[in-house]
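Annual report, structural modelling task.

Input specification for the S-adenosylmethionine complex:
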Amino acid sequence: MTLPPQGSIQGKSVSFDRAAEFYDQTRGFAPGHDLPAVSLFTRDGQLQPDQRALEIGAGTGRILAPLMHHFQGQMHGIDISSGMLGRVSQKVNNPRLHLVLGDALHLPYPDDYFDAVIGVHIFHLVGDYRRALKEVARVLKPSGLLMHGWGQRMFDSRLMGVWQHAIGEENRPDNWYGHEDNVPFLLEEGWQPLPTLHTYTYHEDKAPKAFLDSLIHRHWSQTWTMTDEHLQKGIDAVRAYITANYTHPEVPQPFQQTFRVRAYHPPQGAR
Ligand SMILES: C[S@@+](CC[C@H](N)C(=O)[O-])C[C@H]1O[C@@H](n2cnc3c(N)ncnc32)[C@H](O)[C@@H]1O
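The model returned the following structure:
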């Protein structure tokens, strides 16, 4: 594999190198749902063929790869994980795709360069989300949009509640994405939302036990910095909940999945 060119990478952000092997199995859209889900990014009239878009924290290309079917312009992606970006290179071989191994806090692009910047489940992982947002504003053209996407948790929301409560982290920043309508941190930073929240909902069969297994195997980034004791506390609570509520926890059940996208103009005087 040829690694993409490397920009500057600084500490404190959460690299997903360790997740490259299992990310698509644990976070991917269910088969057949990726194209309709990512079509939400085209609903506000951006992403025309003569335009340039960037995904920050592009990961394995879960968003970017199917989006290239809807968007015929130049697609850029940046991530601090070479393992994750390597997956994109395996999926997409297209001269319109430009990958950079680099940091969203120091975007290696000129001012006013992109018509759209896409961010999905990234701002809680960067070392300084305000700095990342300033960088997004800098590289966006004055007419450009931040297209912010986020998905609902993959399992029974009560199960997630049990987990978060047991580990005492109901107020973690990644709970920013639990909001149905909007994400307060963008509004707080002065980003101006477009009126329409675009939503794609479908059902996916998932076994409740798979959630427990994903905790045991530390598949979720939230578990990566937890001590064994702390993690065990959460696992015990989740196991007790599953035992009490599911007769056959290994049998897949239909869970509702929702993916949402809202576009934002940069704050007035962002630079
Ligand atoms: C939860 S994954 C999301 C990937 C993709 N956006 C998606 O929705 O599937 C977050 C990604 O952000 C990357 N990341 C974390 N901090 C970063 C930073 N400062 N700059 C660039 N990428 C970063 C991680 O390596 C990881 O690949």
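Residues 17-152+173-201+258-265 form a domain with the Rossmann fold fold (CATH 3.40.50.150).
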